[in-house]
Amino acid sequence: MQRFRRLVAAIALAATATTTVAACGGGDNGDNSDAKVLKLWHYESENSAMGIGWNRAIEIFKSEHPGVEVRFERKAFEQIQQNAGMIINSSEGPDIMEYNKGNATAGLLSSQGLLADLSSEADKRGWAGKLSPSLQTTARYSDKGVMGSGKWFGVPNYGEYVTVYYNKDLFQQNGVKVPTTMAEMTAAMDTFVGKGVTPLGMAGAEYPAGQLFYQLALSKGDRQFVDNYQLYKNPVDFKADPLKYGADTFAQWVQKGYVAKNSASLKAEDMGTAFIGGKVPMIVSGSWWYGRFKTEMKANWDTFLFPGNTLQAGSSGNLWVVPENSKAKSLAYDFIDITLRPEIQDLIGNNGGVPVAADASKISDPKDRKLIEDFNTVSKSDGLAFYPDWPVPGYYDVLVSGFQGLINGSKSPDQVLDTIAKPYADGVKEITGK
Amino acid sequence: MAVSETVAATPPAATPTPPAPSRRRRGRNAAYWLYLLPGAALFLLVIGAPLVGTLYLSLTKWSGIGDPRWVGLDNYQQLLHDDVFWASFRNTVWMLVAMVVVPTLLGLLLAAVLFDVIGRRFKPRTAAALRAAFYLPQVLPVVVAGIVWGWILRPDGAFNSLLDAVGLGALRHDWLGDPGTALPAVMAVMIWVQIGYPVVVFMAALQRVDPELYEAAEVDGANWLHRFRAITLPQIRPETFVVALTCTIAALKVFGPIFALTRGGPDNATNVPSYFAYYTFFKKLQVGYGSAISMVLTLIIVVVAGIFIWMQARSERRDRGF
């Protein structure tokens, strides 16, 4: 019994000591320029454009901060996605971390006071000047965690957007010209259908269908629509254009054979490999495929912006965030600053990524340069319209389910719009309380 | 009268009353409880505490970060009016067909044929090899099996190619992409996954049945079907209960194959409560609502398991004749 009492006392003492140490940590605002360690986490692979760029940024940081140790840990995307709240709420979290942009992720953490406010640093260090307004949207969050306005809680340094990848060889073999308008696009697809080729690769079980629908809707939309849909500025009528046009046109494209009726169960990977294998002449998808096509595809290929659209699905890439509990905030800000320097931005661009502040003339490969120039065109004209599944948590699966119905013909466009309207309204109500 | 006298003469001390437990024996019995303590502590830690935690969360509204807000029974009320929740339970009924009814019936038949026909006419090793073949899907990680079946059933997959090869190309279909065929396709996969388990259990059960019963029945002129109904089925009833119970619990909480094959789609055609709970919990960040779904599912599993155990106990009592 005596031994048991001693054990309980020891546990209680240990618990008290831990709490006391944690409490001491909590009282520190962390803006400690004397910190000797920077704990840095991100989830990019080592040979990706961002991974290469950030490795170089770490080298520069070390040379500029002699005596500071950088403790870098590569994490898995899902690991951060599902555990970020708990991680950065503890004293074991990093000082700077790559984190997902959007209301349900960075917005949610910022609304709970878990992320450091970067507004004064953004002004002081000129980050605001390097990022176009549509790129800033994902960096700033309101008190309720809604993106687009309020304080800076993250800084992106790469971008992404949806474009049209096309197989030059197949275009040439079938006598099809690269379309610049929607009329030319449909004519090109008619030509392919006439020759027994399904023109657009599709994957109904994942994001590509929702993104094609959104691209079609954006062709009839404007910034006001994007603000209403993504930032809840005004209610959205799903039974009116641009969303109605998007769903109707998507259904027509399936009917006309532009999109295969049996692609409802396919995944994005299936669509990508079909394009790499030369089975489909075009896919509408994101710049995240670019590096892979560059290394794996044998046929000649290139990209063009979705014809006729001034708005494109796309956004900044994920964000650098600084946890409120960070003990080395000044060092974290220095690191963010380095990643936005031309040297790192050019490095990202020269490795197939889409930097947010690169000088296109410094990009050596013409195809890489075109990818970045296209992004700059969209970004500078405030043309990034984000992604269709962003507005509310869980909306990705709602869209997937809805558009699977349109591909396999089990639902009409009106039914699909009904299916996706209610979860949107419920989700917006949940977030805004309206 | 003499009898009465005899009885009356019996000394009270000879009455076979059970001896009163001595204090020492009671102490020894109490010592046994010490051996249960590690298990009980583990149960409280691994099952009890999370269960209480989930129950508490199911009465709150919480996004997973910050403080949960107490909402009482709101989540449960919302569940009652949630079409997806009811759709997921309708699909569970079909999963019960695919994971309990068909495998148990088919497994029983296969085990009887392997044991009684194949085992006798060929070498027992042949029956053992076939039993292992049926059991093989159970050894595969279910997500791996799901991914491979996903490849087989995709529009340009092996199944459609097979249809082409045998001249049935007109039947080519996007099996997992059509709400009309997705659930039957998933059910077929689950039958394939499940079938080996009852086959192995039933074959083990058949080995403990007294062969003399079959020989006597044969002498009396009973054919295979008669013997199967009159001897095999009653003799292996305990194993049938075990198989039905474990398969029912597996069907009620099925998640892995749905996650790997269809993610509940298309249009919730293959959604099941555990996937719905996962989706609500992790994708919609509605932790309270997801916990309420989990609690309802837990309650159903406990009730169903209770009914099975009660039925099994009643059946055993009947067999023993009291």
Automatic annotation (TrEMBL), chain A:
Keywords: Signal
Transmembrane domains' residue ranges: none
Pfam families reported for this sequence: SBP_bac_1
Matching InterPro entries: Bact_solute-bd_prot1, SBP
Signal peptide range in chain numbering: 1-22
Keyword Cell division: no
PANTHER family: ARABINOSE-BINDING PROTEIN-RELATED
Protein name: Raffinose/stachyose/melibiose transport system substrate-binding protein
Organism: Micromonospora vinacea
From TrEMBL, chain B:
Keywords, comma-separated and alphabetical: Cell membrane, Membrane, Transmembrane, Transmembrane helix, Transport
Location(s), subcellular: Cell membrane
Record bears the keyword Transport: yes
Mode of membrane association: Multi-pass membrane protein
ABC transmembrane type-1 domain span: 89-308
Region feature (Disordered): 1-25
Family: Belongs to the binding-protein-dependent transport system permease family.
Record-linked PROSITE patterns: ABC_TM1
Record protein name field: Raffinose/stachyose/melibiose transport system permease protein
Pfam family, one: BPD_transp_1
Ranges that cross the membrane: 32-59, 93-118, 130-152, 182-206, 241-261, 287-310
Protein's UniProt keywords contain Membrane: yes
